[in-house]
Amino acid sequence: MLMNKHIKELLYNIFKLHRFIKRSIAVITDISLCIFSTWLAFIIRSEYWIELRPETDVSVLFKDFNYYSILISIMIAIPIFWLFGLYRTIFRYTGFSIVFTILISSFIYTLLYISFGVLILQEIPRPIGFFQPLILFILIVGSRLLVKYAFISNPDPKNFFYKKKVLVYGAGDAGRQLVTALENSPEFKVVGFLDDDNQLHKQILLGHTIYSLTKLEKLIKTKKINLVFLALPTIDRKKRNEIIKRLNKYKLIVKTLPSYSEIIDGKVTVSDIKDLNIDDLLNREQVKPDIKLLSKNINLKNVLVTGAGGSIGSELCRQIVKLKINKLILIELNEFVLYKIYEELIVLNKNLKIIPLLVNVQDQKKLEIIFESFKVDTVYHAAAYKHVPLVEENICEGIKNNVFSTLAIAKASVAKRVSNLVLISSDKAVRPTNIMGASKRLSELCMQGIYGDTNDISTNFSIVRFGNVLESSGSVIPKFKKQIKEGGPVTLTHKDVTRYFMSTIEAAQLVIQAGAMGKKSEVFILDMGESVKIRDLIYKIINLSGLTVKDSKNPNGDIEIKIIGLRPGEKLYEELLIGDNPQKTHHHKIIKTNEPFIPYAQLELDLINLKILLDKNRVKEVKELLEKLVKAFKSNSKIVDHVYVEGLLSNKYQENQSSNNLESKNDNDKVNKLIKFSK
């Protein structure tokens, strides 16, 4: 029968007392056990049992009872237990090892009890000298284990007997360490192991049976399993995906153990358990970096990263500080994120000189001063606006930041003879349907045009193009997880939408390696495998959260998937190649392509014109000019720029247009002249 709620809460409050008080309670408890074990030994010796009833004469209970045996027991037992550290042990973290300690101390107690009480003083009957130590040993062990497993191991009094029942997938070293760690868990109770090795099935490991995966359905029903912990830190992605796929059909929550690399790096401990990473669900292996390529443009060099506080920029910095870099310059416009990444980096490499700079990357003159002052060798240009809907709603600022920052950084790099410049681009630059993608493609064209027009150029330009980054700001994956946690619905733009995915670490490493291979204005692309259907991804996340999808087939499911329609500028699928001429590189997973570009002499007038239009917020003309410059740009939405739309609605925009045209005759002539040239 379960203990009353109030009794459990009382015990819980006792466990929260000061350490001295709890030790005192333990000593008093052991004294009581000495008395009880002695009394029980006399009962066994007498070969009769006295039934306790209200009418029973109490004196009968102590018939032939020798009180010296109690006194001697207490005087011997308590000092021995104290010396052996039984009152210093934290019950929460004790296991079966405590049994061995109690066994040794009980053995010594038995020798002294018999020697002193039976042989020397002759106050204790010989049978009592053997029975009483054995009974006391059982009671002492039982009291410790009872406290640990019934109470201390679960600090929530409401859940003393309601731990989550789990299976550990993997009976290797990681699995064994995990189960050992879970022995002290307040939440989980290990029911057994799962493993694919047929030779291990039905064997016992750490007191738990090793089962085949074929037994999982039966175990869920009979053992009421809630969770499966994946303790498989060394298996490859393909094998992990196969296991996840098999677990996916059961209503279970799946959590994973960190990889050995994370453990070695000190990021986590083996006992750490985390939610299943979404990259574990992708059908591709992470591309391993080539150490020589990683080091080529960084070792003993002065490196500068723009957008250093962003998702890609910050991970670039983390990867760079691990190498033998001479100096790292951080450029960021956002004060808070610059401070945050700077503080993180100085901890990662305390000996490295790191310079945090608040700079607008569109300021070419300032960039030239920085490049010259710090003798910059390598530049990674990660500063950009990349959120498609936001850029659609803020067209002018999006183009200014994405295009003219690239133009400024490229010109400054050439002027100050920077050895290597790497532009981080996007798969959305390929046949773009949105302003963000078109602006990134125009950024590529700027770099390609500058390189193609200049004969005497010492800077190697490289453009790195890749798909979606899982952990980046604005990524849909954290959004999906949040929606599931809140009970849904999960919003999906279209049932057929697909995307390429990669991790932030992998993206950063690709950028560094591609930059090391760049010899001219080339575009580098990662072989990202097959694209992922977002709908399927959502299903996996829901199922592996221990929930089910609510739809017409399952109206009683937990989480609904709601189709909301494609957002302005959004594509059903992304591409990585503009042409069809990919070429192999030194890295088997990185390809390059030479793509057509516009000579900068031809491009320059249009860019000047574009800048003037941007400054005047003439969004419609800006979009038209962008479509002219980026031939493949086909917008799939109307203009949703907030300032432009609001101006149209209030008729103030047209008035401002007329006012702007009359501001300056020279300015007006300049615009018309440039438009004429552009045509």
Structure description:
The chain has three domains: 153 residues, no CATH class; 114 residues, 3-Layer(aba) Sandwich (Rossmann fold), CATH 3.40.50; 303 residues, 3-Layer(aba) Sandwich (Rossmann fold). The radius of gyration is 36 Å and the shape is elongated. Strand 8, helix 12 and strand 9 form a beta-alpha-beta unit. 48% of the residues lie in helices and 13% in strands. Helix 12 packs across helix 19 and helix 16 packs parallel to helix 17. It has 679 residues and is α/β, with parallel strands linked by helices. It is built from 25 helices and 23 strands. The strands form five sheets. The protein has a nine-stranded mixed β-sheet, with helices on both faces. The chain has a seven-stranded mixed β-sheet with strand order 3-4-2-1-5-6-7, covered by helices on one side. The C terminus is likely disordered.
State the distance separating the first and last CA atoms. 89 Å
Oligomer: single chain
Radius of gyration: 36 Å
CATH level 1 name of the largest domain: Alpha Beta
The helix tally amounts to 25
Count of DSSP E strands? 23
Please tell me the overall pLDDT.
79
Class based on secondary structure composition and strand pairing: alpha/beta
Task: Name the CATH superfamily classification of the largest domain.
Answer: NAD(P)-binding Rossmann-like Domain
* Beta-strand percent range: 5-15%
At CATH level 3, the topology of the largest domain is Rossmann fold
CATH architecture type of the largest domain: 3-Layer(aba) Sandwich
Low-confidence parts: 152-161, 263-271, 661-665, 673-679
Residues in helices, as a percent range: 40-55%
Number of domains: 3
How many strands, what sense, and barrel or not for the largest sheet? 9 strands, mixed
Question: Numbering strands along the chain, what is their spatial order in the largest sheet?
Answer: 10-9-8-11-12-13-18-23-22
**Apparent shape:** elongated
